[in-house]
Design brief:
The protein is an alpha/beta fold. Helices cover about 40% and strands about 15% of the residues. Helix 7 links the parallel strand 4 and strand 5. Helix 2 packs parallel to helix 9 (about 265-275), helix 3 (about 70-80) packs across helix 4 (about 95-105) and helix 10 runs parallel beside helix 14. Bound molecules: pyridoxal-5'-phosphate. Pyridoxal-5'-phosphate binds near residues 67 and 223.
Length: about 400
């Protein structure tokens, strides 16, 4: 390109997507190879993909499904969570983690989060479990304003590994043991993360990864459940496949099931992505470090903090926090005028319209979650981002903030 053309072009590094998958020729070849066979579902690719994940996570069972949400839903079924049952979880998450409880007419008991990590606060989990176990009057403060039964039983805890940092799981496990609760770990943002040297996803009874294109690895759409519970795994495999139990014929359905199967093309992409996991995680780590370096000189912007129990962070999104005095909406708008997308992360679940309608939640009920929701902004992030792109985003952010 002629030098003089520069002023008329949007430079490549100025065209930054919010997120981007990292796909190579190997993934494309693998999909094409599947398309040369007659087996587009339930073939050898799903088996290989599940094997790759169970090897990685060192678990007995890995069950590929067609979304992270589907995986969480099957865990809820396997944990025996049903109508009116109570499950302690966090309002600072993607909606799926609470929605899967509503799918079964169960009731999420939200407890507020740690202000540093955004992960569920284990002390509040302990108090909530104790109060709910002790009975009606103490339990009352933990229940939603409406839509829950006072004599319902507490069945499980559903922590989320927020933004690739595992929840404080030793303390949560301790509570689960005391009150005999199942733990469903939503590790949909945390494939590759480690908690005190242990892999995210295997920190509870069942764990779930997700493979939407913005996650650490992708299958297009997809997810995977991991567990050491063989009986639960057998049930979840049946439920994934329209409720067909082992030995059922194609038109026999022992259970009320779903079509949550992951097709062979998606599984093939996933198999290759798993073989590249270290590379993918390292690239994301590298981009996160560029961001940290560039942001250090911008006042009013806090980079993500990694706590000591996170022995390995698996970067999912890059969420910064602004000083309360900064108008986040305005910053986001100005960034978008420079061609830089950004996203508030998370909008608290308890304030979503269908949640307030069903349970009567109001603003002010989970102040830490709400404050994080107000101050946080996800910047463009992926493993294929270049250093120039990171610098451009930070330069523009710095400019916008200094002109405030
Ligand atoms: C991505 C994600 C999921 C699952 O998402 P799907 O789009 O259904 O694959 C669940 N929980 C959290 C916290 C997530 O970030």
């Amino acid at each position: 390109m002629e030098k003089s053309d520069f002023s008329h072009q949007i430079l490549d590094y100025q065209n930054v997507p919010m997120s981007s998958p990292d796909i190579t020729g190997a993934e494309r070849d693998a999909v094409l190879a599947v398309l040369h066979t007659p087996n587009l579902s339930m073939g050898k690719e799903i088996e290989s993909f599940e094997k790759a994940i169970s090897n990685y996570a060192d678990c007995r069972q890995a069950i590929g499904v067609n979304s992270g949400t589907a995986g969480l839903h099957l865990c809820v079924r396997a944990a025996g969570i049903g109508e009116n049952d109570l499950v302690i979880t966090s309002p600072f998450s993607f909606v799926s983690s609470a929605n899967v409880l509503l799918f079964e007419q169960a009731v999420p008991i939200f407890v507020d989060v740690d202000p540093v990590t955004g992960n569920i606060d284990p002390e509040r989990v302990r108090t909530a479990a104790a109060d709910l176990a002790a009975g009606i009057s103490a339990a009352h403060i933990w229940l939603p304003p409406r839509g829950a039964k006072l004599d319902a039983s507490l069945k499980a805890i559903l922590p989320i590994d927020v933004f690739g940092q595992p929840a404080e799981m030793d303390a949560i496990k301790n509570v689960a043991q005391t009150y005999q609760l199942k733990i469903v770990e939503d590790a949909c943002e945390a494939l590759g993360a480690e908690y005190k040297g242990r892999k995210a996803g295997m920190l509870g009874d069942y764990g779930v990864f997700a493979f939407y294109p913005n996650k650490q690895i992708t299958t297009g759409e997809g997810g995977c459940i991991i567990t050491n519970d063989e009986n639960a795994a057998m049930l979840m495999r049946s439920l994934r496949n329209q409720g067909r139990a082992p030995g059922d014929t194609w038109l026999q359905h022992t259970y009320l099931g779903y079509n949550y199967r992951l097709d062979e093309m998606s599984a093939a992409i996933g198999r290759i992505q798993m073989s590249r996991l270290e590379e993918l995680l390292t690239r994301r780590q590298c981009v996160a470090e560029w961001y940290r370096g560039c942001l250090a000189s911008i006042p009013g912007v806090e980079p993500p903090q990694i706590v000591a129990s996170t022995t390995r962070v698996s970067w999912f999104v890059y969420v910064v926090r602004f000083d309360p005095a900064i108008d986040r909406e305005h910053v986001a708008k100005r960034l978008s005028q420079c061609g830089i997308p950004s996203r508030p992360y998370f909008a608290p679940i308890h304030l979503q319209p269908y949640m307030t309608e069903r349970f009567g939640y109001k603003e002010g009920m989970f102040p830490v979650t709400e404050a994080l929701g107000r101050r946080s902004l996800a910047l463009p992030f992926s493993g294929v981002m270049t250093r120039e792109q990171v610098e451009y985003v930070c330069e523009m952010l710095s400019e916008v903030l200094s002109s405030e």
